[in-house]
Amino acid sequence: GVAVPLGFILCILSTLLCVVYGIMNWNKGYE
Amino acid sequence: MLTTVVLIYLSIVGFLTIKAYKTTKNTSDYLLAGREIHPFVMAMSYGATFVSTSAIIGFGGAAALFGMSLLWLTFLTIFIGVFLAFVVFGRRTRIMGLNMNAHTFPEFLGLRFQSKRIQGISGLIIFVTMPLYASVVLMGGSAFIAQVLAVDYNIALFFLTIIITIYVIMGGLKGVMYTDAFQGSLMFVGMTVLLIITYYKLGGVTVAHEKLTDMAVVAIKYFGKAGHTGWTSFPAFFSKFWHIVVTTIILGVGIGVLAQPQLIVRFMTVKSNRELNRGVLIGGVFILIIVGVAFIVGPLTNVYFKTHPEFGKIAFFAAGKKIADIIPLYIKSAMPEWFTAIFMVTLLSAAMSTLSSQFHAMGTSIGRDVYQKWLGNNGNSVIITKVGIVFAILISYFLAWGLPYFFEGGTAIIARGTAIFFGICAATFLPMYFGALFFRKMTKAGAYASILSGFTVSIFYIFFIHLKESKPLMLCKAIFGVDSLALGSMWVVVDPLVVALPISIVATIIFNRFGTALEEKHVEMCFNAIKK
Known about the structure:
The complex is a heterodimer.
Chain A: H1 3-24
Chain B: H1 2-23, H2 27-32, H3 39-50, H4 53-66, H5 71-100, H6 105-112, H7 116-149, H8 153-201, H9 205-213, H10 216-223, H11 240-256, H12 261-267, H13 273-307, H14 315-318, H15 326-334, H16 337-374, H17 381-406, H18 413-438, H19 444-464, H20 467-473, H21 475-480, H22 496-514, H23 520-526
Helix pairs in contact in B: 1-8, 1-16, 3-8, 3-12, 3-13, 3-16, 4-7, 4-13, 4-18, 5-11, 5-13, 6-7, 7-8, 7-16, 7-17, 7-18, 7-19, 8-13, 8-16, 8-17, 9-13, 11-18, 13-15, 16-17, 18-19, 18-22, 19-20, 19-22
């Protein structure tokens, strides 16, 4: 089908988004 | 071997609890872990709290029935539950929480809208509804311990409750988060190994999936009328299974995660947005592995059970039609003995990390938010919270003891109870929480509309429309003589969230227009250091 493979791809892409965002902003945003 | 592994595990939990106990010196430490938690601990704690035995056993078992369509929930939990939650909601929550000196989620809402009543009502709703979620997680953990150690369910339930009680009471949120990080790491290892062994046993990734795809005729034979099209494809559009998978499992949990009090408070435990940025990376990978593996291995158990000479039938029937027994049965019969010990502590970790946070959230809700702040009783915050935690644990314990007798299908209530709580939280808190963070002109009237409409519609729908609850609750039958007011229509399988959340959003927008604007000075204070 289409929906399950698409769900699988979106899982991988959203994880990559989290990883890339985390690396790009690793040192940003530092009484 | 099993006993040794469990004893080592409990010793490490004990060590971390004592470490937290020694460094917990004031209210901020006990309620917010001193606002200086390490990003790894924060992200792992968030993930381990979010993913419980409910996800692994309850939803993993549901995936064995419904198939890999549940991967859409994995996608939503990563994209909404981690990325949007941390980047869009988390950063503002942390800064605003610090601006207002909020210690709990209800306190955050109460201070934002300058209303102790909103704080109290929010705390009360959490205290009344969260025991259902806590009790089903307790049930999942206890049922697995009982099965693996061959002890009575009630004995397993009693000892699991006692162990968690000790370390939540002693260590406060620091104890909860330190142990969460350790337990989350164990879960990561356990689930990774489970995936590798499963694919190895079934001949590799593609081969395993093809075997499952070829079993579509079996799925259609048993569940075709309900809309099943096979375990590697989506249920037929608008069928009964489609409604359950999309509205209850995918949307109910996927959206509900944004309004979970025990998760939102995590954003207020870190020192700066840098920790949240780093947490996105850790949380995303963690959720992919834990949730993704449960939803891939669940459906693949059908290949194992169907081709195994001892069973010769699909997972649902091999486990005696008990969804929550599928994963434990698979572990027990398909995995090597050494892995049973690893999976035992994996599941113990999943149960304990979620339960400890639930007990802490319920205790702070009734202790600090209701008793101390709303009702205006003075006293030591930490002691009042501890009393609240004990009270919350007792309620959850008795629910976990009684629910298997009350609900048809016994432990099938595990996934259901989780979805109910996530749905109620989303409908009740999400419009108000979103408005608090992003709309300077959000008024107290809008906040009340969100709480009252979301909660009321959710409860009405659960008691009178949604057949899975309205039938066993029997109130609809007693008043109207029918199991549901919508019998014969699709509404009986549509999740309450799908109806209650839109109504709550509309009510919030409408009533917000009639409310009195909050003082400009107060709003500026709340939004201090937040970009316009």
